[in-house]
Each structure stands twice: as structure tokens, then as C-alpha cells.
Amino acid sequence: MLQKLQQKLARQKVQQDILPGFTASAVLIPLYAAKEGVQVLYTLRSARVQHHKHQIAFPGGIYEKVDHSLEHTALRETKEELGLERRDIEIWGPLPVTYTPTRFFIQPYVAWIKDPAGLNPNEEIAELIPVPLEVLQKMQAWEMHGNEFFGSDFALPAFAWQGQRIWGATGRMSYSLIQLLRGKV
Fold it and tell me: Given the DSSP bridges, would you call strands 104-113 and 23-34 parallel, antiparallel or unpaired?
């Protein structure tokens, strides 16, 4: 399964065009091996961050002039937030871009974390939340909620895990990963 995912991600293309008025950003969707199976690593953002306080998210942030690509943004922010060095991360490829009502353009990158023992979250992260990939792959784990987004109605995916609700952009990117695994993207 992981090898097929890696191959599918390698064929995905990074979207180059950002809609006017949106802030470019990127996140890393970290996967790693644990005794319970492959985990997807989420973070609970602390009260110390400027945007999206107390929300479940992937490590990432806003593109800065020092970044030579959005992939670099995701890696830089992951190092800052989780303490992971570049050598501990294997980028598998991008998922489709996600736009948010708060006018963020988010380019997600799926990556393999070689040694999760190196995780050392900074003050921006209140908690690390690993979720088994196997759980995310089960359709009954997902709920679809109607929502208006830029004047159109959409069904937005969400799921609950250990008392936390994963929704919004993070839910959409997670669902996109699962759809890719299922061969629907």
C-alpha cells in the first residue's frame, strides 16, 4: 500500500498558479511507522500562533522570501515546529492544493518520517496527535458536512479521533490523501 501511495504521489504535480488575494503556504503531511501501524501525524496548534489557534493542523506555514519553493516552506516550518531535520524526512509528493475561506492557498506534501523519535515540538504546538492511517481509510470514520465556500455549496469531510474533531482544510487534505489511496484522485 505505501509503495503504491509513493508511486501515485510521485506523479502528482504542484500547482504553480495562486489565485490573487491568497496567501501562499505549505504543509507537510507526515507519515511514520509505529508498532500500531502507519500513523498520520497531526498537531494541535497552541494559543501562541498567529493563525488558527487551538486547531488541528499539519506542520507548515506561510511562504517566505527565504524559501525557494513551497516544498522548502513545508520543510522549514516542519523543522521549526517539530524539530525534524531535512535528512529525517523523505518527501513523497504533493496532494492537490487546498484553498481556505481565510484566503490561504495551501500546498500539502506527503512525507515519510524516518525516525519519529526525533520529534521535538516547539511552543507553537500544544500536542502531537498520531492517527492510524488504517482508521482514516475506513469510510465510516468520515462525516460530510454541507458548507458554503466562496459562494458555492460544498460537502466538507471531517472525522473525530480521541475527542478531537479534524475538519476544515486539514480534513480536506486528509480526505484527499485517502481518496488518492483509494484511486479516486
Answer: parallel
Evaluate the CA torsion angle 39, 154, 184, 180 in order and state its sign.
negative
Average pLDDT of the chain? 89
Query: What pLDDT is stored for residue 72 in this prediction?
Result: 97
Q: Give the start-to-end residue ranges of the domains of the chain.
A: 2-181
Q: How many CA atoms lie within 13 A of 29 on its CB side?
A: 28
Q: Which fold has domain 2-181?
A: Nucleoside Triphosphate Pyrophosphohydrolase (3.90.79)
Helix (H, G, I), strand (E, B) or coil at 72: helix
End-to-end, the C-alpha distance of the chain in Å comes to: 15
Choose among 163, 83, 151, 159: nearest CA to 122: 83
